[in-house]
Amino acid sequence: MKNSFFGVTKMDRTRLNIELYKKEYLIRKSEETIRKYYMDDEMKTPVHLSVGEEAIVSGVIQAMGKRDQVFGTYRNHGIYLAKTGETDKFFAELYGKKDGMGKGKAGSMHMFLPEENFMGSSAIVATVIPVAVGAAFANKYKKNKNLVFVFFGDGALEEGVFWESLNFACLKKLPIVFICEDNGLAIHAHIKDRQAFKSITDIVSKFGCNVFKSESTDAEVIYNLTVEAVKKQRRVNKPSFLHLKYYRYLEHVGVNQDFQYGYRSEEEFKKWFKVDPLKIQRRKLLKLGLIEKEIKELEKAIDEQVEKSVEFAKKSPFPGEEELLSDVYA
Amino acid sequence: MRRITFQEALNEALMQEMERDSSVFVYGLDVTDHKRIFGSTKGLVERFGSERCFITPLSEDAMTGMGLGAAVNGLRPVHIHQRVDFLVLAMNQLLNMVSNYRYLSGGKVKVPMVIRAVVGRGWGQSAQHSKSLHSIFAHIPGLKVVLPTTPRDAKGLLISSIRDDNPVIFIEHRWLYFTSGEVPREPKPTPLEQGNILNTGEDITVVATSWMNVEALKAAEVLEKHGVSVEVVDPRTIAPLNDDLIIRSVKKTGHCIVADNDWVHCGFSGEIAARVAEKCFNELKSPVKRIGFAHAPCPTTRPLENKFYPNAIDIIRAVEEKLKLEPIDLSNEEFYSWENRFRGPF
Q1: ipTM, 2 dp
Q2: Which of A29, A122, B147, B185 could form a disulfide with A128, with the two C-beta atoms 3.0–4.6 Å apart?
Q3: Cβ <8 Å between B92 and A161
Q4: Are B230 and B328 in contact (CB under 8 A)?
């Protein structure tokens, strides 16, 4: 699946869907593993799990070119895993260890890996958006054709800096794809209690941005939408805005379900769980001709990778005291 | 050596650095209008084009984040603000993103960016066009904070700031733009994190920032006539602070006055007082004296504004108090009145 822009043959389609499923499964498995070990109180970092958004991050990231760059929020595990595929540094960071990608200084909320073009994530809503715009500005300045993809939630749409950034990106026709992952909630506040506008895509389109939207939990649909967006972006030289809906399965921060608190209903969850991204993708693989055993093997390989990484992370040492003051300045 | 103004020195530094390194670009409100940031961005857009020198929307927060993203991706942005006060709109990016980025990446990324901002004063700049805020920036790990005083340093420190791989807040006093001095033609960097002795003296040390160095030098000139020798130390970079020169000077003189171009409470002057107390307590012959803005927002009307700002006379009186001298008759002395030069409005 090196080049995702061109016609998809039957064979390619199977391979594409395997790739998408592997990404989704890696995310789900990693998050479930965090849930399993979190109560041991060794991962001392607030986690905002990606369970429920797997189709979006997997589909979008699958469509990214190798040199394209991505930025994300504190709900960044999905982006990290889909983009890098690696779990050693990931778990080591969660355990606060030296072998983490941020040497334990970043934790869950700030993880990124520049060598894999994951360029930053931030725990303050919308603050990473202008940074992604700046990266896109630099790519245009250097005439290197690389795109920047920036993920944020629906809450970011209420921050001034989102509009400032969108305005500048559209004014300068920067090579950037904005991805709004809309779960309808800012922590526990419903979108209807926060936003006066009904359609974000209507407004954004007025800036001269190409807009796309989907409520699908099928990673292949998201992938195709992103490919279409990128093609159009290259053709008309304007930024893209993807408005993608999903349902957050777990509490805002932490590893538990939280339906008992009454701000949302379990019924709603059940409705979305019927179209769970992994269920859809797994069923599709069977339809495409894979047999159960093949899928199980693929899952087993990921299970083993994740368990190994947890072991690795637990054994990794904490950073030395000298790390406290290193890298404050270059 | 030829003499040029502070404003010309800044302009020459930008011109030479943009010439040297194509990754340097200059942006901000008004950088290409007919006034050109008080002349300091003159000729840049004509020479380097609108891709490397451009105006922006009025979006200080996003434009600061934009600089960070560009820096992380290998460029060297220089973002310019006509007043430091406007930087308050970018505090989220500065304090939550720019200052942290390298640290949280485990040292994998560099953030080479410069933010130039001008401190206003006089002719009714009032409460929102007069702040310096350098103590606030200096409080944050990861930011460098530079305040040039002389034209030579304006050029040399700006060159060093642009070449530095860290975010640098570069604070320029509006009134310094009119001062002139010897400045080398060639692009000669002045090292960051090194102070400078502007006047050598034996009896008392005055540590001053930005415009207050001009006042301190005037005070030293007057006191010299009365046999008092004042050492004026300009730290130039206040974060990270290399206090070697300051400590050495106070150990020599035994007296220390800090004249900061800012409010006193919780300010840079308090930091110097603390360091002097920690490092040369035994040599001190008197407590450290702090001089700064009155603890009020800056008023518009001239009589109150005059009382708001400290000046050379305040420094002279503080020296007399420390050295137990009779008050000097200053009636024949001429002190700076920048109204002749700075007729406003901005």
Answers
A1: 0.95
A2: A122
A3: yes
A4: no
Report the C-alpha gap between A210 and A232 in whole angstroms. Answer: 8
* Partner A contacted by B142 (CB < 8 A): yes
The runs of H, that is alpha helices, within chain A are 10-38, 54-62, 77-84, 88-94, 129-141, 160-171, 200-205, 219-236, 266-273, 277-287, 292-315
Rg of chain B over CA atoms, in angstroms?
A: 20
Q: What local confidence, expressed as pLDDT, does residue A1 receive?
A: 42
Which residues have C-beta within 8 Å of that of residue B334, sequence separation ≥ 6?
none
What's the one-letter identity of residue A122? Answer: S
Contact B133, B188 (CB under 8 A): no
Secondary element (H or E) of residue A227: helix A219-236
Alpha-carbon distances, residue B128 vs A6, B22, B119, B125, B298 (angstroms): 56, 35, 10, 7, 8
pLDDT at B339 over 80: no
Structural domains of chain A, ranges and CATH numbers in brackets: 10-317 (3.40.50.970)
Taking residues B176-205, report their average pLDDT.
Answer: 97
Cβ within 8 Å, pair B97-A131: yes
| d(C-alpha B50, C-alpha A106), whole Å | 37
Same CATH topology for B3-182 and B196-331: the answer is yes
Closest Cβ–Cβ partner in B59, B65, B165 for A131: B65
State percent of chain B over pLDDT 70.
99
pLDDT band at B340 (very low <50, low <70, confident <90, very high): low
Domain definitions of chain B by residue range = 3-182, 196-331
Q: Which residue in the block uniquely carries the two structure tokens 């979190």? A: A38
Residues 6+ apart with CB under 8 A from A329: B102, B142, B144, B166, B240
In the predicted structure, residue A7 carries a pLDDT above the cut 60: no
Locate B88 and state its tokens. Answer: 């308050």
Could you give the residue numbers annotated as active site of B? 129
pLDDT single digits (tens) A148-197: 999 999 999 999 999 999 999 999 999 999 999 999 999 999 999 999 99
Position B342 scores a pLDDT of 74
Which CATH architecture is the domain B196-331 placed in? 3-Layer(aba) Sandwich (3.40)
Q: Which residues of B touch A106 (CB under 8 A)?
A: 104-106
* Residue of B5, B7, B47, B8 whose CA lies nearest to B26: B47
pTM of the model: 0.95
B278-310 burial, b for 16+ CB within 10 Å, e for fewer?
ebbeeebeeebbbbbbeeeebbeeeeebeebbb
List residues bridging with B232 in a β-sheet. B199, B206
Cβ distance of B62 and A120 shorter than 8 Å: no
Query: Using CA atoms, how far apart are residues B72 and B329, in angstroms rounded to an integer?
Result: 57
Q: What is the mean pLDDT of chain B?
A: 96
Q: Does domain B3-182 have CATH number 3.30.160.20?
A: no
